Structure formats: structure tokens, C-alpha cells
Amino acid sequence: MTLASDDKVLxxxxxxxxxxxxxxxxxxxxxxxxxxxxxxxxxxxxxxxxLGAELVLCSPSARTRQTWSAAEKGGACGENIEYPPxxxxxxxxxxxxxxxxxxxxxxxxxxxxxxxxxxMLASGLTEGDGSSQAHECLAAGFPTSSLAVLxxxxxxxRLDYGMARLERCHICRG
Length: 174
Known about the structure:
CATH class: Alpha Beta
CATH architecture: 3-Layer(aba) Sandwich
Order of helices and strands: EHEHEHHEHHEE
Strand order of the largest sheet: 3-2-4-1-5-6
CATH topology: Rossmann fold
Radius of gyration: 15 Å
Strand content: 15-25%
Number of strands: 6
Shape: globular
Number of domains: 1
Largest sheet: 6 strands, mixed
Oligomer: single chain
Distance between the termini: 24 Å
CATH superfamily: Phosphoglycerate mutase-like
Number of helices: 6
């Protein structure tokens, strides 16, 4: 992907399908077999579309860590990976603040997180701007292993609601 010097790409990646085990803490839930396959397909899709991230911000939960690991097996790449705790429980504002504070000079940042936060953040940052097909995909529920690709022009510290365009939305299934 060719970017102008001011252009930034933010990829919001909802974790893959996780187990539902009574009594197991939410933070410790792991991926199912389907989840692993779907996350690998997401990694293939990211690779095929040349969406390599300079920074990956991954929620510290087991299922998000496993999602990123499986995506890497599928071909996704990230130069630097961080696991900030606010991605697990910080909601939209926590994720947005984390991107603003952590992204630095990176042009491509990928966030592996949870719903409804990922879908709400994608919707809020773009406010209907961008591909109508991508917005239809996002509005359809943003299921597990979904990717939203947003483009933004400017410094990360100024990223805010209504300032990005939704270029792509893709649901990965293996």
C-alpha cells in the first residue's frame, strides 16, 4: 500500500471466535479451532493486501493474543507489538487514547481488540465517510475475525471522531 507522508492507516481487528466456558474468567477465554482458522485467514488477507503494521496494539486477553499469533502464522506482520491493558477494558475512548499516545511516527497501526468497542470506534471515527460497501459490512454486526481499514491524514495525536474514512471492511472465515 502506497501512502503519502501524512496518510495513516488504522486497522481495527476484532478477535477471532473464542470459547464459552462457564466459570472461566473472561480475560482467560481462548480461541476455538474455528477461531484459529479464521485468524489465520485474516493474516493471509492482511498480507495479500500489503497491510503490514509498524505497530500492533493488542489487548492482553488470551483470545486477542492468540488471534494475533494465528494471524502472524497466516502471513500478517507487525514490526512492534504492545499489549496495553486499556485495550481490554478501556472502551472506545481508551482505545483511541492508546492509539494517539502510542502510534508515534508509524503510518500503519493495527489494533486487536473486542466488540462492541472495535465496531463502535470504526463507526465513530468515520461517521459514514468512505466506502458504502465497507459501511454496510460494518453495520452488519462486525462479527469475530472482522477487519476494518480506516485512512486518516494527519498526526495520530489529533485523530478524533469523524476524521477518518472507512476504506474496507472484511469478515475472515477459514
